Amino acid sequence: MAAIEGAIVLIGASAPGLMDLRATPLNASIPGVEVHRQLLEQVVTGNYLTRPDYAPGLELIAALVAISILALCAPRFRPSINAVIGLALVAALWGAGFFVFAQGGYLFDPVFPTLAALVFGASATTYFYQRTEHQRAGIRQAFSQYVSPDVVRQLTAHPERLKLGGEVRDLTILTCDIRNFSAIAERMSAEELTAFINSFLTPLSDIIIESGGTIDKYMGDAILAFWNAPLDQADHAQRACNAALAIIARVSDLNLVWRKEAETAGRSFEDVRIGVGVNSGECCVGNLGSERRFDYSAIGDAVNIASRLEGLTKAYGLALLVSADTSQRVSNVAFLEAGLVRLKGRTGATRVYTALFDDAPVDHGAFLEAFQQGRFDEAHTMLTQLEASAAPSLHPLYHHYRARLDAAQAAPPASWDGVYDPDHK
């Protein structure tokens, strides 16, 4: 009896048949007398559970803080990372509730903040995931036909690299056109011409895309492409020149195929001759067009120069003309100066180059210097030697200079700078 002397003793039953088992938040079944004991213990010790008046407000603040954190994270991270952040917030809410209960007997309910965080987190993550997928689908749809699959994958994985709406970038632009298209087209029916254009543009497009270029547009038998957009390419000038050389070689191979097809169809065939112009410079690139229809395109003076150079290939008798802005950036291609031209809309002279497929003519530079300085007799002598010794690929270039030199000698101009002024663009 000494053990219970002075103590309060509660007597109760624990047998299930006596119907005095009770459920509590912490236990599914305890004797009812245990509930009485805990109540009495709180009275004796003065250790009561306390739910302050400010508890609902604090729980609301906790919910708002959790929602704010999730709102910041949802658009920035993948759904899996957001799920981890959400679970960490839930654990923090319940841990904080247990801590204040264990340390001070304060009762804060983490259920409301938890439900608010989970509902908002799930909704926000779903929304931003669907928005991101929609954005990626739009990028795939916009670029899949114009750039390589690797570029599309990079853009969909990192859409922040794509600045829509227009930006100024340093690009290298390539334009390519069939010089004798009219003569070829008049020998074909509409169906044959369509098949021919497709067989021409498809392999050229493949070359451009494989080199990392972006196809801007098709214009009949012409194609316009550029490099260094939408993704950065430090070697964009070199990529464009390599693509230009590959295009010229590919058209040479295609001529053999087209000739056989023409012979099979019983019609004459004229080899396709193309002109390629390449230039580098600043352009505005982005989604350009109207509110109803727009394309990812580039505009600017650098694009116009590339187009002018492509048009000049016919006058110079060359398949490729490259501006100085491009040639000085390329290290793996040997270039030969083709001369000085005054492009439409520009007052100064532009120095243009072509790719050199054979050994450089020994006196080519000296001839250009004599020609541009108006030393016509000296230039005439050197040109005759060049015509006799140069590779066949350069004969059309020297034929161009022969015509200009003969005209200058026949009627010497009052002022002479050796710059070619084309009659067309």
Task: Explain what the structure shows.
This protein has 425 residues and is α+β, with helices and mostly antiparallel strands. The chain has helices spanning 32-45, 55-73, 79-104, 111-143, 149-157, 181-185, 190-210, 236-265, 301-316, 324-327, 364-372, 376-389, 395-410, and strands at residues 21-24, 27-31, 167-178, 214-219, 222-227, 274-289, 294-299, 320-323, 335-341, 350-355, 419-420. The chain has 3 domains: 49-143, no CATH class; 164-356, Nucleotide cyclase, GGDEF domain (Alpha-Beta Plaits, 2-Layer Sandwich), CATH 3.30.70; 358-425, no CATH class. The chain is built from 13 helices and 11 strands. Strands 3, 4, 5, 6, 7, 8, 9, 10 and 11 form a 9-stranded mixed beta sheet that branches. A two-stranded antiparallel ribbon has the order 1-2. Strand 1 and strand 2 (27-31) form a beta hairpin. Helix 3 runs antiparallel to helix 4 (111-143). The termini are far apart. The model has no long low-confidence stretch (mean pLDDT 86).
